[in-house]
Amino acid sequence: MPRIGLNALVLRTDASYRNAGPSRYATNLVEALLAQPSGHDFTLFLNEQVRKLPFKPARPVRVLRTRAPTSRTGIRVLWEHLLAPWHIGSARLELVHSMLNVVPLAAPTRHVVTVHDLSFMRTPGAHPTHRRWYLTAATWLSARRAKSVLADSCATKDDVVDLLGIDPSSVHVVYPGREATFHPRSMAEVNEFLQSKNVSRPFVLFVGTLEPRKNVDVLVRAFGEVAREGFRGDLVLAGGSGWATASIDTALGESPVRRRIHRVGYVKQEDLPYWYCAADLVVYPSSYEGFGIPVLEAMASGTPVITSNRSSLPEVAGNAALTVDPHDIQQLAAAMTDVLASPERRTQMSERGLVQAGKFDWTVAAEQCLKLYRHALDPS
User: Fold this and answer.
1) CA–CA dist 200, 232 (Å, integer)
2) Measured on CA atoms in the order 197, 200, 201, 204, is the torsion positive or negative?
3) Residue 62 sits in the same domain as residue 206
4) From the CB of residue 133, how many other CB atoms can be counted at a distance below 10 Å?
5) In this predicted structure, what is the pLDDT of residue 380?
6) Structural domain total, the chain
7) Do residues 134 and 196 both lie within one domain?
8) Which domain holds residue 266?
9) CATH number reported for the structural domain that contains residue 196 in this entry
10) 371, 318: one domain
11) Could you tell me if 206 and 350 lie in one domain?
């Protein structure tokens, strides 16, 4: 029985902006892998903050929970490179799948690594200098150390090949899946939720960590134009503050409709599906994404989406969403105005979104991972 380690130190269960994309990826992929009849013996690496898995494993799994506070990024980095190799060797793991760009480089085993994106190379100004330097070097080395590199999208695969110089045959696109909790809800459920939050419709919704490459400042300024055109609803910004939010604060301070823009902070996972279903429109104008989970979640919820025409986002949106230049305030405002003014168009976009979201499945992702594990373990 092959012994495989799942490096899920990025998995979080707390209510913070860190319990976002990579954490949700690790949670859902691990759950899907453990549900497969693979015959593998899994060891799951978790940080000290995760006292209980956010799902019930379908099969027994050995859990190695770190004593060090690896929920903190700097400590996690040190633990992965200094202590993880010892634990991996002691457990005689034959393969380790690391789920956030970097593998324990000195570990005496074979590796598979998921590279979510190369934003630190594509949009370097959106990251602190020390983070950019470390991730560039460590991801470059990890992609060469790994038997297989998993990319969240074709756009990310292209970046791995172009920016890291990795052989295309070693890079495999494994799309993340949709979570079952994201689906259309009844109007009664939505109204009950809105009443509990003291929120009224209509409103436009943004979901994501507030950071430079998400272009939330562009959205805030575009919303001012939409309001001037007659839209009487609000804008809701749902997501924790990441870093370098000065441009967002400036846009909010200068907005003529500041009182109609609401920052609700990090949204609990159990509330997020209701926010999507309650919104009249979801706007996600990010400059760069390895995948773009909020776009998938919104489509699965039956809510129309406007997103960026950059990186992986058109790939995820398909023909279901409108795509715009994420830096063009007027183009974004015009798209929002057109969609909000047409119930028929929103219905059409909703129907297409549900079909598009159905193409992304965690069971399929897990099956693809297991196939790559077998390939990596093949001694030939």
Assistant:
1) 11
2) negative
3) no
4) 13
5) 66
6) 2
7) no
8) 187-357
9) 3.40.50.2000
10) no
11) yes
138 and 224, same domain (yes or no): no
pTM: 0.92
Confirm if 285 and 208 have CB atoms less than 8 A apart: no
182 falls within a domain: no
Half-sphere exposure of 196 (CA within 13 A, CB side): 10
Per residue in 302-359, pLDDT tens?
999 999 999 999 999 999 999 999 999 999 999 999 999 999 999 999 999 999 999 9
Q: What is the three-state SS of the chain?
A: CCEEEEECCCCCCCCCCCCCHHHHHHHHHHHHHHCCCCCCEEEEEECCCCCCCCCCCCCCCEEEECCCCCCCHHHHHHHHHHCHHHHHHHCCCCEEEECCCCCCCCCCCEEEEEECCCHHHHCHHHCCHHHHHHHHHHHHHHHHHCCEEEECCHHHHHHHHHHHCCCHHHEEECCCCCCCCCCCCCHHHHHHHHHHHCCCCCEEEEECCECHHHCHHHHHHHHHHHHHCCCCCEEEEECCECCCCHHHHHHHHHCCCHHHEEEEECCCCCCHHHHHHHCCEEEECCCCCCCCHHHHHHHHCCCCEEEECCCCHHHHHCCCCEEECCCCHHHHHHHHHHHHCCHHHHHHHHHHHHHHHCCCCHHHHHHHHHHHHHHHHCCC
pLDDT above 70 (res 17): no
Domain match, 206 and 337 both:
yes
Tens digit of pLDDT for each residue in 119-159? 999 987 777 888 899 999 999 999 999 999 999 999 999 99
- Are the CB atoms for 370 and 33 separated by under 8 Å? yes
**Which one, of 303, 285, 297, 312, lies nearest residue 352 by Cα?**
303
List, for residues 268-306, the tens digit of each pLDDT value.
889 999 999 999 999 999 999 999 999 999 999 999 999
CA–CA dist 279, 314 (Å, integer)? 21
